[in-house]
Design goal:
heterodimer, A: about 110 residues, mainly beta, six-stranded mixed sheet, five-stranded antiparallel sheet, 11 strands, about 55% strand, B: about 110 residues
Chain lengths: ~110, ~110
Amino acid sequence: RKEVEQDPGPFNVPEGATVAFNCTYSNSASQSFFWYRQDCRKEPKLLMSVYSSGNEDGRFTAQLNRASQYISLLIRDSKLSDSATYLCVENSGYSTLTFGKGTMLLVSP
Amino acid sequence: DAGVTQSPTHLIKTRGQQVTLRCSPKSGHDTVSWYQQALGQGPQFIFQYYEEEERQRGNFPDRFSGHQFPNYSSELNVNALLLGDSALYLCASSLTEDYGYTFGSGTRLTVV
């Protein structure tokens, strides 16, 4: 069975902190990976795609390590508005997505 | 440009009943996927429709069925509802060969 595993958290960090999440995947044939953000009782929204070469978008950096089959997300200078659940996602083929259970981030003043 | 729209937003049903959820994909998208998200869990893939055919299916029983119409909109049907079917049902649309998914805001189904 194809699995994506994440630490559920919550990660409690103060504003301005740097926080990192990891997730592992079991399907070595998966081609693409994503991080989604989900606010409470809302739909998931794409945060960023993940590439082997790394992907940076402002304060967010995503990295893929195929040898170890893990994906990371680094958030620098955390904002209160970053509080959400972060979902690690792999594209299992034919554009079907396998989601992890999510990691909850709580940023406090 | 309208995104993915789902209806209804909330629904309460009794065990054993049947339910139909609806999804209109984002303009220009031809592929619709359905996901079930139970409380505290990540979304789980139910099935995907393309060209009015079920192209992929996740690990869900036959009580879950669907349909895609010529205008690309889609329905999810669940028969013989169980308490465990209570969840947020998400529809996501995409364009074939493009990994850009757009999710609707979901239908929250409660089975009592």
